[in-house]
Amino acid sequence: VEAGEILEKLSEQLVDLEQHPNDSDLLNAIFRGFHTVKGGAGFLQLDALVSCCHSAENVFDTLRNHKREVDPELMDVVLEALDNVNTMFDQVRNLEEPTPASDEL
User: Fold this and answer.
1) Chain mean position to CA 64
2) Is 77 domain-assigned?
3) What is the DSSP letter of 100?
4) Cα–Cα separations (whole angstroms), residue 96 to 14, 19, 37, 50
5) Which of 21, 55, 60, 98 could hold 88 in an S-S bridge, CB 3.0 to 4.6 Å?
């Protein structure tokens, strides 16, 4: 599966998550999506992309373990993370070095 397809699926899953915030299968699927993209980025030594995906993974690990609930503020951060990952992925496709996400993310 191409990373672009995974990112597209993640976008759809995040929309679903807003409607079904306690769906453990969905939380696991989103975690796996970020994990898969992170693995590919690591293989290609794209550290900025690895770091952003790792941060998203940590959020979804916290959600999967019921240490935090999905709320609008968290969704804003997760959607921003996905936007950053998509931007970095586009930069890589254009043979550019990915721009790291802001430290605030």
Assistant:
1) 14
2) yes
3) P
4) 27, 36, 18, 16
5) 98
Q: Is the dihedral of CA 99, 34, 43, 2 positive or negative?
A: negative
Q: What confidence tens digit (pLDDT) does each residue in 1-52 have?
A: 588 999 999 999 999 999 999 999 999 999 999 999 999 999 999 999 999 9
Residue in the block written with tokens 């699926």: 9
Q: Which domain holds residue 87?
A: 3-93
Which among 36, 11, 22 is positioned nearest to 64, based on CA atoms? 22
- Domain harbouring 60, CATH code: 1.20.120.160
pTM reported for the whole predicted model: 0.92
Closest of 62, 44, 54 to residue 81, by C-alpha: 54
